[in-house]
Design brief:
In the C-terminal section; belongs to the HTP reductase family. In the N-terminal section; belongs to the cytidine and deoxycytidylate deaminase family. Its EC number is 3.5.4.26, 1.1.1.193. InterPro entries: APOBEC/CMP_deaminase_Zn-bd, CMP_dCMP_dom, Cytidine_deaminase-like, DHFR-like_dom_sf, Eubact_RibD, RibD_C, RibDG_C, Riboflavin_Biosynth_HTPR. Helices cover about 30% and strands about 25% of the residues. The protein is α/β, with parallel strands linked by helices. Strands 11-10-9-8-14-6-15-18-17 form a nine-stranded mixed β-sheet, with helices on both faces. A five-stranded mixed β-sheet has the order 2-1-3-4-5, with helices on both faces. α3 packs parallel to α4. The chain is globular, with a radius of gyration of 22 Å. The C terminus is likely disordered.
């Protein structure tokens, strides 16, 4: 039970790095000596330093003979910094407890072997499921080349996101909107479709949380036909803006957006639309591990149809608009109910006058990628 308690603390430490440490995993580390926590650390912004050296620096000499709890196998390769496994050996810790093994070929099993070869007791698998969930974006990027994707939908009771005239502010209440900003903060990037960018002129920034690192703003627009006087265009020099587009996008528009400060990512087509799988793989190549999608309906439908949605978060308000309103999810071309993506309900809670529900993909029904 003690191991689980300290690993739970390490997991909470690791979550502090979510959204700011990509392309590295958000790892947490806790060092315990004689029943007292003497060092804590998590992966720092930009991915360096790693969690273990941060915790070791805090612990100092107290690390000798201590037990170290770390959410991911300590790295064993020389990169921008020396291996964390070597740092733990040099600190003369007595025991290392690891939640999950790294899937990166440069590390997988090697960090654990280095520790054992040095005479350090190693225990693995403590709160492994929780750690695997927290680190799923890193594992997906390593194994499949694409980030973890959360799709957020804020709708009326009848699944609409705007009236027939396009009015949508505000369907949900202030509590729900603040919760969404907190979710943006824990993701590397916020992504929307071109239709949402044109209709809403969003900033896609984190607000109400003080001076924090902003996620990358990503807009998916095949032809780059986006407003050049928009908030996104005006802030592209200050906050990262990536535009995912098709090869047939107008060359002059590509140059204009680059001059404004945006980074352009070409993506293959799947029929007449950009490939959802290709979009996420392009973001994975850039190092993103966690992406937060806020619509619109066409983008949400394409991601769901391609089985790219790992987590679905819905905010349902006590409002009814009717069939003439804009649906939260566009056409998916499903002929049979058995083809529909299904999700497991993980949690739900009241958020002011709204209901927030969290759903996870049913793993057994995953489609081949």
């Amino acid at each position: 039970m003690t191991d689980r308690r300290y690993m739970a603390l390490a997991l909470s430490m690791g979550r502090r790095g979510q959204g700011v440490c990509w392309p590295n995993p958000a790892v947490g580390c806790v060092i315990v000596k004689d029943g007292r926590v003497v060092g804590r650390g998590w992966t720092q912004p930009g991915g360096r330093p790693h969690a273990e050296p941060v915790a070791l620096a805090q612990a100092g000499k107290a690390a000798q003979g201590a037990t170290v709890y770390v959410t991911l196998e300590p790295c064993a390769h020389h990169g921008q910094t020396p291996p964390c496994a070597e740092a733990l050996i040099a600190a003369k810790v007595a025991r290392v407890v690891v939640a999950v093994q790294d899937s990166d070929a440069r590390v997988s099993g090697r960090g654990l072997a280095m520790l054992r070869d040095a005479g350090i007791e190693v225990t693995t698998g403590v709160l492994a499921d929780e750690a695997a969930r927290d680190l799923q974006g890193f594992f997906l990027k390593t194994d499949l080349g694409r980030p973890f994707l959360t799709l957020k939908l804020a709708t009326t009771l009848d699944g609409r996101i705007a009236t027939a005239t396009g009015e949508s502010r505000w369907i949900t209440g202030p509590g729900s909107r603040r919760a969404v900003h907190g979710m943006r903060l824990r993701h590397d990037a916020v992504i929307v479709g071109g239709g949402t960018a044109r209709a809403d002129d969003p900033s896609l920034t984190v607000r109400e949380f003080g001076d924090v690192a902003q996620p990358v703003r990503v807009v998916v627009s095949r032809r780059l036909d986006l407003p050049l006087m928009s908030v996104l265009a005006q802030t592209a020099q200050d906050i990262p803006l990536w535009l995912v587009h098709g090869a047939d996008a107008d060359v002059s528009l590509q140059k204009t957006w680059r001059d404004l400060g945006a980074e352009l990512l070409p993506c293959p087509l799947d029929g007449v639309h950009l490939s959802a799988k290709g979009v996420l793989e392009a973001l994975g190549k850039k190092g993103l591990t966690r992406v937060f999608c806020e619509g619109g309906g066409a983008l949400a439908a394409s991601l769901l149809a391609a089985d790219m949605v790992d987590e679905l978060i819905t905010f349902s308000a006590g409002v009814v608009i009717g069939a003439e309103g804009h649906p939260a999810i566009g056409a998916m071309g499903l002929a049979r109910l058995g083809e529909a993506p299904r999700f497991d309900l993980v949690s739900h809670q009241r958020m002011g006058q709204d209901i927030m529900s969290v759903w996870h993909r049913i793993e057994a029904q995953r489609h081949p990628r």
